[in-house]
Write a structure and sequence with these properties.
70 residues; mainly alpha; 3 helices; 67% helix
């Protein structure tokens, strides 16, 4: 059986679940930022590093991109 010392089976599953949620929140942050006119690739990198805090910034702090004036 796979063993990581202090990580038993239950703790490993909890850790993997939290890591998956962290990455999912990062992807959601990138999608929100893209819909507001920001770079998807840049926000994906930040989202995968920052997770939940970056999602909160993307939702509450980003302003909508203004279309260019004609």
């Amino acid at each position: 059986m796979l063993s990581f010392g202090f990580l038993d089976h239950t703790r490993l599953w909890i850790l993997l679940t939290l890591l998956t949620l962290h990455c999912a929140f990062g992807v959601l942050a990138a999608i929100v930022a893209q819909r507001r006119g920001k770079s998807f690739r840049q926000w994906l990198i930040w989202g995968l590093i920052g997770g939940t805090p970056v999602l909160m910034i993307a939702i509450f702090r980003l302003e909508q991109a203004q279309p260019p004036a004609k």
